[in-house]
Each structure stands twice: as structure tokens, then as C-alpha cells.
From TrEMBL:
Source organism (scientific name): Fodinibius roseus
Keywords: Metal-binding
Presence of the UniProt keyword Cell wall biogenesis/degradation in the record: no
Domain HMA: 4-70
Protein name as annotated: Copper chaperone CopZ
Cross-referenced SUPFAM superfamilies: HMA, heavy metal-associated domain
Alphabetical list of InterPro entries matching this protein: Heavy-metal-associated_CS, HMA_dom, HMA_dom_sf
A molecular-function term among this protein's GO annotations: metal ion binding
Amino acid sequence: MTTTTTILRSDGLSCPSCVNNIESNLNQTEGISKVKVHFNTGRIEVEHDTETVSEEKLVKVVAQSGYEARVSQF
């Protein structure tokens, strides 16, 4: 198992319930061990197993939550 932290950015967070929705959906995804969504900055930090969950999968889970996200370097 190879664990890494991937940073995503989302510009569409309009309320604190957005944070709960994204965190809940990501936490239910196999291979993800930790999630932190920062409402004010749109920063989504995801600690995950790279062999189980790709960056593309992370973006897809956020999209299924109703929000656009993209991989960010910081």
C-alpha cells in the first residue's frame, strides 16, 4: 500500500453543508483514509492509497457529490 496526500481545488463551495457532503462521499470510498475540506479556500486534502484510488477517481467522487474539482499542486 502506497499512501499519499492529494490536493484538490473546488470553486463551487457555497455553504458549509457542501463540506459535509464532499467529506462524507470521499470517506465512504475504499482506499481513502483521511479527508479535510476547507470551505473558505475550496481546498480538499485527501490521504489515500494510490494503488486503490487514483486522482481521477477523487475528482469523480467530488463530481458525484455535485461539485467540480481539479487536482492542484498546493
